[in-house]
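Final report, closing paragraph on structural work. Over the funding period we assembled a curated collection of sequence-structure pairs, and we close with a single example.
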Amino acid sequence: MRIIEKIFGKKNFIINKEVPKIYLISLGVKYISDFLRFYLIKFLFKKTGKRAYIGKKTEIVCKKKICLGDNVRIGNYTKINSISEEGLSLGNNVKIGEYSSILLSGGINNLGKGMSIGKNSFFSEYTFFGAAGGIKIGEDVISGQYVRFHAENHLFNEIDKLIKEQGVTRKGIVIGDNCWIGAGAVFLDGAELGNGCVVAANSVVTKKFPSNSVVAGVPAKILRYR
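Its predicted structure, as stored:
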């Protein structure tokens, strides 16, 4: 039980009696493997906490630009490229789900800003973080599957010039503390949520919303306040 509490960063963690013991054993074996995978390369990171767990087949580029807090969990088959100006910072008890991608730069000729996630924040499977313009996510954020962040946007006003040659804008994306992001939501460059916001599934967030907003739609609009 104490091992489970350490991994999940929770005290008085209660396991449902319906959970088979064989599953708990397999889960324990997985986390031991994930911890050993981290331990063998921890000296390559800029900074690490007491422990972290890195899933199998995970690709991490430029570890020296990454700071990890205690009990960070990175799921299987995740891709992280931290080449950027400020690097990547994951706070205590942050989880990144399986098959996710964290890309801090769009290319090596124009480095991105970087990304930080506050403690106790959880992102489900297949999350995409495109952080060229900078992404700042607060504490205690929970997020469903297939959520995408795109902190960069292409300029396209010159009709006699190729769009790919017109450059980009980078306003960045900011998510406050204690937000709930529904599955499939998309955040575009310049999007910002205050504290305590709720975003409905499959919404497209394009602008700033005040704290405790409940937003939905394409583009997202305020439905009500909590």
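Helices lie at 2-8, 21-39. The mean pLDDT is 92. We thank the funder for supporting this effort.
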